[in-house]
């Protein structure tokens, strides 16, 4: 699994590490850099999945641009960024580094390498002498001293992605490259948008990042899986609204059965049931359903990122949401990273979650920093005066971080 991502000259970050765990909560004021950190995960997922570097940032016909596109991807005043990923695989840690240089109409790899941590063994690395070249000489470890394998690769696509199709002599190297590409391309970032979820949706295997095809994804499951998933959705969802939701399901529609609609059954009074389709469902209900569907239908052992996870959810339901994330995440052996502004969610998390809370914060030069809450020196003193939610509401965590920087 991915353990951390270091961001260097990425958007508002000069240098900072985003740690990932089974459940990591990222908090911070508006504009502190939460979504900028999430954007780095989107970028990595795109380039590991084969998108060109330029397209991964600027977008193309099938891909939306990263927020800010080419103009805002490097930290202001710089024209290159570096991302460093640490992945744990079969009890070893591997470090993957990619540096990209951007120009007016281009974004190219200037360095990329994959090392086995600890022993500093290089599985592949690039060595660029001439920055004007469009190809990049890349060297792969073969296991035999002095016998590297060399390839000239394209600078507009990640070396990681290109390596998957090469005939590498060292099977272990090929295996680790394939695992890393799988982990990174499998990162799923969900930003559920209820208004996009109200329409009929075409059958689909994968949930889209706005959750718009939720009905299509559920309807495309085989009968047994769909039954299981819908049962789970119902069991969690019934705890959310004021009154009971008895059932959640999808139905295929249209002459060719290629589209689907989402329904739920509300029970207000005995013998008085009301069926509601997605068009009539509340924003919070749809967001909650999209989050659960992402967890239940995504591949196992992957990282799922949910932006503003509790948007539209009543504070009294924060605990239910957290429990759901923990339980479904565990079932899928997924890592879950969420961003939030909500003090109620932090209070629901309680002190046992302190090691799994990251605070995004801008210093007085405007650089973003990510700091684990437990690493804030004044935390023990602050906790004795109030719970985490209060500390956030009163801006005490930010004040402590500012004092630490002085
Ligand atoms: N290339 C860049 N260089 C410097 N700063 C940047 C760059 N790109 C974005 N920023 C800064 O990042 C800020 C936005 O950060 P981000 O979107 O991550 O905030 P957030 O923590 O997600 O906030 P919210 O809670 O409002 O969603 C902008 O206000 C801008 O100042
Ligand atoms: Mg944001």
Report on the architecture of this protein.
The chain has 406 residues and is of the alpha+beta class. The chain has 2 domains: 1-187 and 302-406, Rossmann fold; 195-300, no CATH class. Helix content is 30%, strand content 30%. It contains 12 helices and 18 strands. The chain has helices spanning 34-48, 53-58, 159-163, 171-185, 214-220, 223-237, 283-297, 318-331, 343-349, 379-383, 388-393, 396-405, and strands spanning 2-10, 13-19, 23-27, 80-89, 92-102, 107-116, 121-126, 135-140, 149-154, 188-190, 201-202, 244-253, 259-269, 272-277, 303-306, 335-339, 357-362, 368-372. The chain starts with a strand and ends with a helix. The structure holds adenosine-5'-triphosphate (ATP) and magnesium ion.
The CATH class assignment of the largest domain is Alpha Beta
The total count of helices amounts to 12
Overall strand count: 18
What string gives the helices and strands in order?
EEEHHEEEEEEHHEEHHEEEHEHEHEEHHH
Topology record:
Blueprint (H helix, E strand, L loop, with lengths): L1 E9 L2 E7 L3 E5 L6 H15 L4 H6 L21 E10 L2 E11 L4 E10 L4 E6 L8 E6 L8 E6 L4 H5 L7 H15 L2 E3 L10 E2 L11 H7 L2 H15 L6 E10 L5 E11 L2 E6 L5 H15 L5 E4 L11 H14 L3 E5 L3 H7 L7 E6 L5 E5 L6 H5 L4 H6 L2 H10 L1
Parallel strand pairs: 3-16, 3-17, 10-15, 15-16
Antiparallel strand pairs: 1-2, 1-4, 4-5, 5-6, 6-7, 7-8, 8-9, 11-13, 12-13, 13-14, 17-18
Helix pairs in contact: 1-4, 7-8, 8-9
Bound molecules: adenosine-5'-triphosphate and magnesium ion.
The site of adenosine-5'-triphosphate has 16 residues, from helix 1.
């Amino acid at each position: 699994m991915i353990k951390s991502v270091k961001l260097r000259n990425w958007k508002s970050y000069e240098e900072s590490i985003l740690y990932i765990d089974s459940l990591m909560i990222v908090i911070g004021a508006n504009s502190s850099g939460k979504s900028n950190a999430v954007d780095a995960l989107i970028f990595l997922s795109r380039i590991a999945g084969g998108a060109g570097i330029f397209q991964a940032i600027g977008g193309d016909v099938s891909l939306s641009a990263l927020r800010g596109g080419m103009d805002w991807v490097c930290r202001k005043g710089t024209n290159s960024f570096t991302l460093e990923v640490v992945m744990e695989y079969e009890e070893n840690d591997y470090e993957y580094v990619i540096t990209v240089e951007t120009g007016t109409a281009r974004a190219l790899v200037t360095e990329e390498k994959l090392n086995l941590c600890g022993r500093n063994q290089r599985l592949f690395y690039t060595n660029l002498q001439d920055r004007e070249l469009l190809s990049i000489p890349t060297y792969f470890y073969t296991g035999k001293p002095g016998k590297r394998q060399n390839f000239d690769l394209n600078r507009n696509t990640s070396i990681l992605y290109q390596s998957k199709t090469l005939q590498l002599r060292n099977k272990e190297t090929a295996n680790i490259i394939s695992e890393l590409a799988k982990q990174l391309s499998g990162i799923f970032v969900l930003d559920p948008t209820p208004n996009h979820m109200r329409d009929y949706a075409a059958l689909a295997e994968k949930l889209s990042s706005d959750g718009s095809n939720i009905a299509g994804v559920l309807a495309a499951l085989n009968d047994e899986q769909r039954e299981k998933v819908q049962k789970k959705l119902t069991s969690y969802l019934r705890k959310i609204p004021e009154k009971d939701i008895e059932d959640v399901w999808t139905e295929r529609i249209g002459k060719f059965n290629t589209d689907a609609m989402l329904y739920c059954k509300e029970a207000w009074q005995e013998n008085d049931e009301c069926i509601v389709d997605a068009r009539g469902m509340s924003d919070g209900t749809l967001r909650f359903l999209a989050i659960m569907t992402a967890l239940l239908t995504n591949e196992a052992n992957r990282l799922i990122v949910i932006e503003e996870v509790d948007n539209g959810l009543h504070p009294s339901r924060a605990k239910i949401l957290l429990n759901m994330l923990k339980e479904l995440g565990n079932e899928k052996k997924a890592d879950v990273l969420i961003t939030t502004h909500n003090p109620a969610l932090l209070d629901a998390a309680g002190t046992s979650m302190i090691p799994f809370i990251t605070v995004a914060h801008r210093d007085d030069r405007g650089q973003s920093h990510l700091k684990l809450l437990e690493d804030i020196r004044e935390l023990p003193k602050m906790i004795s005066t109030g719970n985490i939610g209060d500390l956030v509401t009163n801006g005490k965590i930010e004040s402590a971080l500012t004092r630490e920087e002085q």
